[in-house]
Amino acid sequence: MKFCYFGGNVSLKNSNIDQLEDAHFESVLFTYRQMQGDFFTIIARTMNLNQKIKYMVAIRPHALSAQYLTMINQSINEIQKDRLQINIITGHIKPDEFDFGGILGSITDKSSVPDRTNYMIDYIKELDNMKKNNINIPDCYVSCTNNYSLEAAAKLNYKIIFSYKDYKFGYFLDKSVEGQEKPGDAFDLSGKKITLAISPIIRETQEEIDSEFPKDVVVNLYGGKSYKDRPRFAKDTAYFTYDRFVSFIKELESKDINEVLLNGIPQSERDNLISYVKRYVEEHEHN
């Protein structure tokens, strides 16, 4: 199993790359956020050539042309080859992004989800076109939240980041009516290159889980800021004893899912999650 860490820190003053490398993570994903600065620049400045961990940068395709993305990839490859990965996303537009754009064109952050999905599909087709014309494109992971993007990405043989929420339900949620999510289209993951995105909370025993996280607990996603709360068992959070986590990873491998993208939510769980991944790899992969 390959482990990727969601939401890494990398700068001259604050970085968890050494910790993730030591814990045997394959890669680290940096989220898309205008206020965070340009991760490509930071990666070029801070990349340790003696490490193996890869840097995955999330991009909204309507914000960066396929042509310019391949130029960035070529420049990073000049520093060290095959250390850059890209997560192509339609974008979850946050409340503090509604009042400004910074993007001029037919598709922007304010476009509908179907329009942004169609643009993303055209984007990955264009990257595939460039590859056929001997342009060196980056290693891309496409986040898929509906059957249109899932099948388009699979047809072009892209790696696919897939939500644990959808995986456990067995269908995509139908969001066509505002505020009324309901079961939508089923999907078929067989034969596809799936990276499962999940937020695991791991403890040694079930008693610890039940004591710390009663079923009606509310978990704040942003460390105390009243931005978004969610109850236990909602969305992509899953609660495991360590032994059950081991079984879950083996279960995924039996289904030919060989990569997971792990998010430490809430923030207080991050060091704990990283330590459990290190333990798992050293006990089950490096023996």
Overview of this protein structure:
The structure is a single chain. With about 290 residues, the chain is of the alpha/beta class. The chain is about 35% helix and about 25% strand. Helix 4 packs parallel to helix 5.
List the defining traits of the structure above:
alpha/beta; 23% strand; two-stranded antiparallel sheet; 287 residues
Major β-sheet strand ordering: 1-2-3-4-5-6-9-13
Distance, first to last CA: 14 Å
Secondary structural class: alpha/beta
The geometry reads as globular
What are the secondary-structure elements, in order, as H or E? EHEHEHEHEHEHEEEHEEEHEH
Beta-strand percent range: 15-25%
The main sheet comes to: 8 strands, parallel, barrel
The number of helices is 9
Number of strands: 13
* Helical percentage: 25-40%
Question: How would you concisely characterize the structure shown here?
Answer:
This protein has 287 residues and is an alpha/beta fold. It has 9 helices and 13 strands.
Topology:
Layout: E1 2-6, H1 17-22, E2 27-30, H2 39-46, E3 54-59, H3 66-79, E4 84-88, H4 113-132, E5 139-143, H5 147-155, E6 159-163, H6 164-169, E7 171-174, E8 182-186, E9 193-203, H7 206-212, E10 218-220, E11 229-231, E12 237-241, H8 242-254, E13 259-262, H9 270-284
Parallel strand pairs: 1-2, 1-13, 2-3, 3-4, 4-5, 5-6, 6-9, 9-12, 9-13
Antiparallel strand pairs: 7-8, 10-11
